[in-house]
């Protein structure tokens, strides 16, 4: 790989694929890549055929446990691996009207977990109102996926740790590595230092402390074209390093595999790693992970109210295969009777110990 | 036969050696897998040892595999390079310590 390609990727990463009019901003183009090449040539089996070998096709949902709502693609960061293609230039954010529809669902759902994500969900102007209203519904586990740096990005966000605490929000934050170099390479210059400060602020109000009910979990995803290793070993290394270097405490580490879509797909192709990465995913295929893959217990809602089997399918614009496709028509029983929409990116969630928004599954 | 003795794609075929001798191949891979499990040494420490040895035996497949393995385990490039130096130091030391043999021989033959 030429150095110039690497430089191009680095420069390009300051804007979303969409703002750059990159061909991969077109979800159909991504699907063509995922369905073509190695898979069309018969070098690697289609995901559908792979799960059929163990009688797991069609993939069906089990009991709904997690309602994941994406309140918008706007973000203060432009991470190289972002499957949402989020960034400051993304203007798609959930309106209060759509939030009202979501609240109606939150009040009546059988799911025990509500999971707000983005972009940086805090950048939605109605975020705090939404959290206040949603927290009244009494859902057992209320997650907000915070990128940490947002807490320091502007004065108006400085009190977020207190706000999260007030509403007993479970904070889940990305942290690709416990060293500055690796973190900044993936997430942008200065992100590591700000993330450390933000974690310290969360610790100060009680988040992540041993025996504290204020849950603070970190998400690790590899900063490159390789799969995550054993989650518990990584957690041990993260805990040791963050405690020793910065006095930081947190509860659990979720190891998440990067799926070959959006900006990570762009990176894989530009760095000539796409084929090897797909081989690695298929080789690490684990039928036991298919049993527990997150789309079997999750519904993902987009900023404009459409329903998906997961956040990745949302970014590929693969809506649920159900009569109910939008939050305004939400019906859990009807939705639960669907077949899950799959493609080759799904190998990302079934590799090794599996991968989900809550970490490994198998 | 390929144009080159080493083909990166061959690494993926390593498991195929079992096809021509199932018993020995299986025994080898069972042993190999067991060696790298968590034990008195962590899997992380063993990955670094493997990386150092990979360089000493100059095995391109092993360097490929254990650089990736190290990345997967969150091992930093500084740690990896120190491991490579540890291997290189032993290898060069192994050469140099033979200098004593040369000195012994020289002294024995000299008046």
From TrEMBL, chain A:
Pfam families: DUF3641, Radical_SAM. It comes from the Bacteria. Its cofactor is [4Fe-4S] cluster. The keyword S-adenosyl-L-methionine applies. SUPFAM superfamilies: Radical SAM enzymes. InterPro entries: Aldolase_TIM, ArsS-like_C, rSAM, rSAM_ArsS-like, rSAM_sf. Coiled coil: none annotated. The keyword Hydrolase does not apply. This is Radical SAM/Cys-rich domain protein. Keywords: Iron, Iron-sulfur, Metal-binding, S-adenosyl-L-methionine. Residues 227-360 form the Arsenosugar biosynthesis radical SAM protein ArsS-like C-terminal domain. GO terms for molecular function: catalytic activity; iron-sulfur cluster binding; metal ion binding. Residues 69-207 form the Radical SAM core domain.
TrEMBL record, chain B:
SUPFAM superfamilies: AhpD-like (SSF69118). Pfam families: CMD. Signal peptide: none annotated. Residues 23-97 form the Carboxymuconolactone decarboxylase-like domain. GO terms for molecular function: peroxiredoxin activity. PANTHER family: ALKYL HYDROPEROXIDE REDUCTASE AHPD, BLR3452 PROTEIN. This is 4-carboxymuconolactone decarboxylase.
């Amino acid at each position: 790989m030429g150095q110039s390609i690497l430089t191009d990727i680095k420069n390009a990463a300051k804007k979303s694929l969409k703002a750059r009019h990159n061909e991969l901003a077109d979800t159909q183009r991504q699907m063509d890549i995922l369905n073509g090449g190695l898979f069309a040539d018969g070098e690697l089996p289609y995901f559908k055929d792979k799960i059929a070998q163990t009688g797991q096709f069609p993939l069906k949902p089990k009991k709904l446990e997690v309602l994941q709502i994406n309140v918008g693609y706007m973000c203060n960061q432009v991470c190289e691996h972002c499957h949402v293609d989020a960034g400051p230039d993304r203007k798609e954010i959930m309106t209060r009207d759509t939030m009202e529809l979501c609240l109606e669902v939150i009040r009546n759902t059988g799911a025990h977990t509500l999971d707000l994500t983005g972009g940086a969900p805090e950048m939605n102007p109605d975020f705090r109102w939404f959290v206040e209203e949603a927290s009244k519904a009494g859902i057992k586990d209320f997650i907000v996926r915070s990128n940490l740096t947002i807490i320091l990005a502007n004065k108006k966000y400085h009190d977020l740790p207190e706000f999260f605490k007030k509403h007993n929000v479970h904070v889940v934050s990305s942290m690709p590595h416990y060293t500055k170099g690796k973190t900044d390479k993936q997430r942008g210059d200065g992100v590591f230092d700000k993330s450390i400060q933000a974690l310290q602020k969360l610790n100060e109000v009680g988040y992540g402390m041993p025996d504290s009910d204020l849950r603070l979990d970190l998400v690790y995803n590899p900063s490159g074209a390789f799969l995550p290793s054993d989650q518990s070993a990584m957690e041990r290394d993260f805990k040791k390093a963050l405690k020793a270097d910065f006095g930081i405490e947190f509860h659990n580490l979720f190891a998440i595999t990067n799926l070959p879509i959006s900006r990570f797909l762009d990176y894989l192709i530009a760095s000539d790693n796409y084929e090897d990465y797909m081989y690695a995913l298929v080789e690490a295929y684990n039928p036991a992970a298919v049993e527990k893959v997150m789309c079997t217990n999750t519904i993902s809602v987009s900023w404009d109210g459409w329903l998906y089997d997961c956040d990745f399918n949302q970014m590929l614009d693969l809506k649920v295969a159900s009569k109910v496709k939008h939050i305004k028509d939400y019906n859990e029983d009807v939705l639960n009777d669907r077949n899950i929409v799959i493609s080759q990116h799904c190998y990302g969630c079934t590799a090794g110990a599996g991968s989900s928004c809550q970490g490994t599954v198998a | 036969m390929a144009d080159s003795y080493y083909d990166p794609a061959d690494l993926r075929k390593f498991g195929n050696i079992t096809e021509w001798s199932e018993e020995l191949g299986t025994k080898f891979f069972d042993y190999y897998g067991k060696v790298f499990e968590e034990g008195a040494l962590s899997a992380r420490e063993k990955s670094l040892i493997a990386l150092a040895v990979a360089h000493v035996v100059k095995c391109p497949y092993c360097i490929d595999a254990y650089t990736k393995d190290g990345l997967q385990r969150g091992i930093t490039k500084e740690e990896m390079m120190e491991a490579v130096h540890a291997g290189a130091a032993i290898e060069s030391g192994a050469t140099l310590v033979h200098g004593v043999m040369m000195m012994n021989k020289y002294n024995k033959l000299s008046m």
